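Can't paste images in this forum, so I'm doing it all in text. The chain is below; anyone willing to post the predicted structure tokens underneath?
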Amino acid sequence: MRKPTLPHRVVIGMVILACSAALASCSSRTQFPQAELSRICRATGEGMDQAAPLVGGIHPYILVYPTGENHPLNISIPEEWYPKEIDDLQLVACISELKQNIEECNYYGGPSIIRYQYRVIVNVVEARSGFPIGGNFFIGSEPRHCGHSEAISVTELTGKHVDPGVVWGWLSVYIRYQLDGQSRK
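Text version of the structure:
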């Protein structure tokens, strides 16, 4: 008989709790300059000269918001894939999560209900050159449909967040990508 596996969010939550309990090991990870990472996320071809050239094998990477702020999922990156110094950094994965209005249900004599669905946009950029390598978007589950009648306290219905495992699966292609050329800068 198969044992049920834990959902990715539970596992990530456990990692976050473990990280909180052992703060020293989590805070030892290098923090990179937020302004430079924000510039890299714009993928304008402006990179960080001190970053590592993009060569074959495992590519040390970090996850950030478009503002350059570290993404909480960085703590889930295995130590051997997380850059120790800025001159180890090869890739930056810029992640945005949006809560998109997909429908508004209007009711006579009561408030409208807005249905929301989460979307995650990931852009992978070479740290040294600022050159975009790839991108994708992921869609979370749809919320339930509006009923013929709803409690007056219900004003929104929201689907589930995008499964981080799906994003990791797609991102792993870039982390392990074998390049036949050198860095673009």
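The radius of gyration is 20 Å. The CA atoms of residues 129 and 185 lie 5 Å apart.
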